[in-house]
Amino acid sequence: MTKSLKKLIGNFVKILAIILLILCLFNGLNLVNGANSDNVPTDKDEKFENIKNNTKSNTNNDTTNRTTNNTSNNASNNSIKNANPNILTQSQIIKSSKTLYNYIYKYYTLPINVTVNKKEINTKNFLYLMSKTIIYKYKSLKNNITIKYSIKSQKCLKWDTIKGKGHKKTYYSLAKSVVSYIDLHNKVPTYIKLPNKLKIKYETIVYTFSKILSTIKNNSLPNHVYINVDKKDGINNNGKSLKLYNSYKKTDLSKYLKSTSYTPSKNSYIKNLAKKITKNYNTTKDKAEAIFNWTIKHIQYNFYYNTKYGGLKAIKLKKGNCVDMSHGYAALTRSIGIPTRYIHSRSNFRISGWLGHVWIQVLIGKTWTPVDISGSNNRFGCVVNWDQNTYIRQSVYSETPW
Q: Which part of the chain is the Transglutaminase-like domain (predicted)?
């Protein structure tokens, strides 16, 4: 036999051996896969059976554990889906009470709605939640509270100034009275009588309860809370600072329309600007308010004494103190025929304390309406950056002397 033939036969035997080995391995692999397929479900089959039949496989501990976890997760998801969105925790209500208190303190008026756990709740309904929370805290109960919807308003009646320190037992009794009244009438009370016979108005109750819940420490109500709300405060009157309003008494109004060096109402720049600001408004009130909104937005407050720029320059520079800001506002309103006068007072500012101050009254109908551009949170007819209950009015001017 030649060498070449022997080599060819040897190669053939090697190839045949490799083929036989591959076939053996392939058959063995099929047997293993077949055993698993017959006796133990695959992961995909197991998940399908758990969803379809909600049963547990008993073939091994692994499968049992995975099925138990799936069932537990399903129960947890169902619990979340079935949770009542109208039930709130006391901590959620307390958190929103702090936001409400900060709002009232900042703007001296109540908001329409309060956000609680991403849900908008009317302030009347939120009063009920705060009242229940105070009752539960007083009794050291941890109960959740169900939102009571569709609580109605009442007409306004006479009420009193509330000033003094309230004890924990007093506002617990007040909260019980509020809850009882709402449960019986489905309306908020216009006022509730206190032990001293004073009538505390609905808005002041909201403010008081928000302050109480804002000062909770260690999950307990404060022993005392001090309240000082005048019956004419903005809190009780939709933001209006009624103590700063005055009735019009028949007088010569020409001096309150006069153009001066400080208040150049006949200046063409001032007249054109006033017309531009008020072009979409018809009533005196709307025009005066539009000028207020423009002025408080565009003139930045700077601290210094007396007049430094005058109205025209303050508007162009977009800065000024209370006097120059008032000059700018008066120039604009007088230029379109709205009588405007200056009020000089001693005012107790929230941040700065007692200071001499100048602000404006503009004549709307038969009422001199307060306007103060010096505070960024002030609104037309509403002053919040100083205390209207304690201010001292010193003079009324058609033009400031300094």
A: 314-375
Better pLDDT: 53 or 86: 86
Q: What is the pLDDT of residue 2?
A: 53
**Beta-carbon-side half-sphere exposure of residue 23 (alpha carbons within 13 Å):** 6
Fold of 242-397: C8orf32 fold (3.10.620)
- Please name the residues in contact with 112: beta carbons below 8 A apart, sequence gap of 6 or more: 122, 123
Q: Say whether pLDDT at 80 is over 50.
A: no
Q: Collect all residues with Cβ–Cβ distance below 8 Å to 122 and sequence separation of at least 6.
A: 112, 113, 114, 151
* Separation CA 370–CA 400 (nearest Å): 17
Among 49-58, 267-276, 289-298, 328-337, which stretch is predicted with the lowest mean pLDDT?
A: 49-58
Q: Model pTM?
A: 0.75
Task: Decide: 326 and 342 in contact? Cβ < 8 Å.
Answer: yes
Q: Residue 380, exposed/middle/buried by CB under 10 A (0-12, 13-18, 19+)?
A: buried
Domain edges within the chain: 87-236, 242-397
- DSSP category for residue 162: E
Cα-based distances in Å from 13 to 6, 18, 19, 20, 121: 11, 9, 10, 11, 88
